């Protein structure tokens, strides 16, 4: 995966230890919203925990296991969120995860990041045939992202409630390599 992906008004930069304080500050400023939806945001991160998570992410990127990026606003070079590709949906697929800082939501940044990551996933020589986006059904803002990108709703499922906003019902959105390449 490339270290950097262009995505319109934002760019995706691979995780690096130098981003630890910025990521922590962005998570802290958006904690009420992130805590509502994200399993990883059930406790406020400490500097030590953030550094450990980033070190693991850097090692995973280097080993081609997972690819984590920060989202940076091009116009001001501010960190405005995060996104990544995860190998947790089988051997031939990847899952996209994303979050945007509260004061930057509604600008299309999550959609831009997911588009760039989908393109990147299908450019890898590792044979991935599909990309998925998973979310709780109650997370209405997040549901807009795969719809805008032409993903199809593949499955509705019962899910464990792991965060305060979770409803116990989830969506799995998917796009296959062949249909993505046709629409690109």
Plain-language structure description:
The chain is α+β, with helices and mostly antiparallel strands and 184 residues long. It has six helices and eight strands. It has an eight-stranded mixed β-sheet with strand order 1-2-3-4-5-6-8-7, sandwiched between helices. Helix 1 packs across helix 3 and helix 4 packs across helix 5. The longest helix has 16 residues. The chain is globular.
Question: Using only CA atoms, what is the Rg?
Answer: 16 Å
SSE string, helix = H, strand = E? EEHHHEEEHEHEEH
Q: Order of strands across the biggest sheet?
A: 1-2-3-4-5-6-8-7
Binned, the helix content reads: 25-40%
Low-confidence stretches: none
Task: Estimate the global geometry from the Cα principal axes.
Answer: globular
Name the CATH architecture.
Answer: 3-Layer(aba) Sandwich
> In whole angstroms, how far apart are the ends?
19 Å
Number of domains: 1
Please give the CATH class: Alpha Beta
Mean pLDDT, all residues:
95
Number of strands: 8
